């Protein structure tokens, strides 16, 4: 029994030999000046983006800690003062004293 070739199916073209001195179109495109300048521009954009993201993170950290250290205690103290004023006003009204509020115009 002799081996018979298969009928039908997909036949791929034969590959070119590697010894061919003519470079392929893909090699020509990847080694072109436009592609190398595009790669360089992408690398530069990635570098700048990374630096910008890092400096933005540092600035956000500084702003957040400054807010916590300086403004949160101030907000808490203002809230305490407001509660104290409301308590004094409530005690004064219970004792029958006339309320002392800001003068009406």
UniProtKB/TrEMBL annotation:
<keyword id="KW-0812">Transmembrane</keyword>
<keyword id="KW-0653">Protein transport</keyword>
<keyword id="KW-0813">Transport</keyword>
<protein>
    <submittedName>
        <fullName>Uncharacterized protein</fullName>
    </submittedName>
</protein>
<keyword id="KW-0496">Mitochondrion</keyword>
<dbReference type="GO" id="GO:0005741">
    <property type="term" value="C:mitochondrial outer membrane"/>
</dbReference>
<keyword id="KW-0811">Translocation</keyword>
<dbReference type="Pfam" id="PF04281">
    <property type="entry name" value="Tom22"/>
</dbReference>
<comment type="similarity">
    <text>Belongs to the Tom22 family.</text>
</comment>
<keyword id="KW-0472">Membrane</keyword>
<dbReference type="GO" id="GO:0006886">
    <property type="term" value="P:intracellular protein transport"/>
</dbReference>
<keyword id="KW-0675">Receptor</keyword>
<keyword id="KW-1133">Transmembrane helix</keyword>
<feature type="transmembrane region" description="Helical">
    <location>
        <begin position="59"/>
        <end position="76"/>
    </location>
</feature>
<feature type="region of interest" description="Disordered">
    <location>
        <begin position="1"/>
        <end position="24"/>
    </location>
</feature>
<dbReference type="InterPro" id="IPR017411">
    <property type="entry name" value="Tom22_pln"/>
</dbReference>
<dbReference type="InterPro" id="IPR005683">
    <property type="entry name" value="Tom22"/>
</dbReference>
<keyword id="KW-1000">Mitochondrion outer membrane</keyword>
């Amino acid at each position: 029994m002799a081996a018979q070739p298969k009928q039908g199916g997909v036949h791929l073209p034969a590959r070119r030999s590697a010894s061919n001195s003519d470079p392929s179109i893909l090699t020509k495109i990847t080694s072109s000046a436009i592609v190398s300048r595009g790669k360089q521009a992408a690398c530069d954009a990635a570098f700048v983006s990374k630096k910008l993201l890092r400096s933005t993170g540092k600035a956000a950290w500084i702003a957040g800690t400054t807010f916590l250290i300086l403004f949160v205690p101030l907000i808490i103290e203002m809230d305490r003062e407001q509660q104290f004023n409301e308590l004094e006003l409530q005690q004064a009204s219970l004792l029958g004293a006339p309320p002392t509020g800001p003068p009406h115009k």
